[in-house]
Amino acid sequence: MSTDQIAEMAWSADEMMTVSAARSLTNTDTCFVGIGIPSTAAILAKATHAPGLTLIYESGTIDTNPSQLPLSIGDGELAQTALTVVSIPEIFNYWLQAGRIKIGFLGAAQIDKFGNINTTIIGSSYDNPKVRLPGAGGATEIAGACIYTTIICRQSTRTFLEKIDFITSCGFGKGPGSRKEYGLTGKGPRNVITDIGILEPDPDSCELVLTQIHVNVTVEHALRSTGWALKISDNLKVTQPPTERELEILRTLNTTSNAHT
Amino acid sequence: MIRTLSDAIKDLVHDGESVAMEGFTHLIPFSAADEIIRQGIKDLTLIRMTPDLIYDRMIGAGCASKLVFSWGGNPGVGSLHRFRDAIENSWPRPLEIEEHTHAGLANRYLAGASGLPFAILRGYQGSDLLDHTENVKIIDCPFTGERLAAVKAINPDVTIIHAQQADRNGNVLLWGITGIQKEAALAAKKVIVTVEEIVESFEPKMNSAIIPAFVISAICICPKGSAPSYALDYYERDNDAYIAWNIISKERETFVAWLDKEVLNSPVDVVQS
Predict the structure, then answer these.
(1) How far apart are CA B58 and CA B36, in angstroms?
(2) Out of B71, B148, B178, closest to residue A134 by CB
(3) What's the predicted TM-score (pTM) here?
């Protein structure tokens, strides 16, 4: 692709992140979806290469087929286009806890090198936080019980930290062995998809390593945007740019979102 | 059985009680919350998985001394500013919190509805929440030895929910996303249900739940009683109102002016059966 063509098709860092997250899902996956960019990415996957993808939201909607981006996890369209809608205890106990869902798609306010995420507070005191964030919601048990999780989060020294202010949901805890010790049945984070690239856990140390970098992003930028000494894979891959089709569908989804009625 | 909302709230909700007002994004009982605010009921322990705009109003209005919850945001929009102001700055009064995960709080209701002292789940472990949350203990499974989370039953003094329909006998039908309402109702000592309308008989609906009259204390007819959330097959979620709330609630002054105009000086329509 020539420089001219890339300029013509210019995309934002968030669009590259969303497209990369969508590409990580396959046609046969079942995915427990959090609202926001994770939901946008999952719906984009379903609208492009993975029409058979099964989307599950914590409001109890199983195999839902929204035509627009929902603003909340309980928007009416999610229920009306679902194969079935179950109660909250059922979605968490029978479906999530029992290990029936392959991928959990999660966001984060802060993340550490073991893929532990914080969505609870910013600051050093739980009782007296600098910023009170929404909290766990479904994330703690999604991170525990899905076979794998994918975390989607913008990468900066504000979000990618050596030590996060609060562990809301466990990735690999303190490192190898932690998940087993805590009795978490899923395998933990499979990847962390950011506006810079994709990080994957080292199979031995569990530490997140940059294995893929988005087109036009430098390794120096990745290092500068990470609050710990980020390791770079020897086989660092470069993300294919978003295709015209991916961008067109993503932008249509964003402009017809229920968030902007 | 069928009563005006103001009478039902006056008789059944009192200062200092624990009150669960459930509805997971769908069927959130906003009209009942506004009536509690108008009646100036105080020192409530408010219980709800997602405090949402309904508790943001009540917290900002000073109704609550404690909040039991599992996710406190404005869905798809951002922060709940009144909730944050109460926790970060104790305005308009200090707010004690008891924080859970969705699965954990859902199971607390399940235990409450089942008449059991606790429920178990595979949860909380690996999270710092365990160090900050009452009513969760890690126990050994007596059969396998697996370490599991036990959560204490929750039995609200009052549960308030909104449903699409009641019949003349006081049975209630809700459908669509039914969330945690059945468990919250069955866990409670008193149950108030606001409904869109009274019907002669129920038609079968996809994914419906019926709550029989004999567990309900009062039914109140409140058309649009869950706006700006929604009632499936009656009206849609007013997403613009959720987005607008971000601005209205951000500053104390704009919130107080809104509360004064839209709640305190805007009495509920009195609907008789």
Answers:
(1) 8
(2) B71
(3) 0.95
Amino acid at B91: W
Report d(CA A143, CA A105) in Å as an integer: 9
Residue A55 lies in domain: 3-196+243-260
Q: Specify the pairing of strand A208-214 against strand A231-239.
A: parallel
CB distance from A136 to chain B under 8 Å?
A: yes
**Domain for residue A201, yes or no?**
no
pLDDT, residue A4, reads 53
The residue whose two tokens read 């109704």 is B63
**Taking CB atoms and an 8 Å limit, are B237 and A76 in contact across chains?**
yes
> Dihedral through CA A69, CA A73, CA A76, CA A80, nearest 10?
90
Question: What is the tally of structural domains in chain A?
Answer: 1
**A219 occurs within a structural domain:** no
Domain span holding position B174: 5-100+155-249
**Residue A127 one-letter amino acid:** D
Measured distance between the N- and C-terminal CA atoms of chain B, rounded to whole angstroms = 10
Strand partners, A192: A151, A199
Per-block mean pLDDT, blocks of 10 residues, chain B (273 long): 96 98 97 98 98 98 98 93 96 98 98 98 97 95 97 98 97 97 98 98 93 98 97 95 97 98 81 52
Q: Are strands B96-99 and B78-79 parallel, antiparallel or unpaired?
A: unpaired
Closest to A16 measured CA to CA, from A245, A211, A214: A214
pLDDT of residue A9: 64
CA angle B61, B62, B67 (to 5 degrees): 110
Q: Crossing angle of helices B52-60/B252-259, nearest 10°?
A: 100
Q: What residues of chain A lie within 8 A of the CB of B177, using their CB?
A: 59-61, 74, 78-79, 85
The reported pLDDT for the residue numbered A7 is 53
What's the CATH code of the domain at A148? 3.40.1080.10
CB neighbours of residue A122 within 10 Å: 16
Which among A85, A144, A166 is the nearest to B122, CB-wise?
A: A144
The per-residue pLDDT for A219 is: 98
The predicted structure's pLDDT at residue B101:
98
Kindly give, in sequence order, each residue whose CB lies less than 8 Å from that of residue A168, ignoring residues fewer than 6 positions away. A117, A118, A119, A120, A135, A136, A139, A140, B127, B128, B129
Please tell me if residue B182 touches chain A, with a CB cutoff of 8 Å: yes
Q: What is the CATH number of the domain that holds B38?
A: 3.40.1080.10
Q: Cβ–Cβ of A92/B121 closer than 8 Å?
A: yes
Residues of chain A with pLDDT under 70: 1-9, 257-261
The CA-to-CA distance between both ends of chain A, in Å, stands at 37
Question: What phi and psi, each to the nearest 5 degrees, are found at residue A49?
Answer: -90, -10
Strand (E) or helix (H) holding A149: strand A148-152
Task: Report yes or no on A234 lying in a domain.
Answer: no
Alpha-carbon span A128 to B25, nearest angstrom: 28
pLDDT of B270 reads 56
Check CB contact of B130 with chain A, cutoff 8 Å. no
Integer CA distances (angstroms), A23 to A48, A105, A192, B27, in order: 9, 13, 13, 35
